[in-house]
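Quick check before the chapter quiz. The format below is the same one you will see on the exam, so make sure you can read both the input and the output lines.
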Amino acid sequence: MDKKRISLVIFGIVLISVILTIFLLPKNNIKSPVKTSVPTPIQQPLELCKPFSPNPGEISCQDAVNAVLEKYPGQVTKIDKKTVEVLTEKGQGTKSSNVDPSTYRPPQLTFDNKAAWVISITVNKEFSFPAGTTKILDVAISVKEKKILVVYPKFEK
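Here is the expected output.
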């Protein structure tokens, strides 16, 4: 009978400890659901876009900025239009994992020069890279379509 009472007392203490822990946890440790919001594209023309006149067959400076800010919300600090090197995959390569190693062909990777808007921004959220963390990015977006070609992190010295 004594063993049974001891077991019940231990069980009661554990049960009370668990209940108190749940109800007495500080409220700031409990994370609320993450609220997501879609960034609002810039509506008025940017002062930084004024030096660039629109060219037929190309997206405008304003459209490029809006596309970049949708993906990387933040503050635009500089805009440039230049040629960037982009790593691209040429050919199909061999996709199947059940391929004879003697006939395997990897896809060919080459650097291509692409005309791009290069938009420098200070983003709202810090990004981590192997070289460190930063909030400053240069984002290259194609002048022909709203497609981000490459993102360059900028690290403060």
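If your answer matched, good. Confidence is low (pLDDT under 50) at residues 28-32, 34-39.
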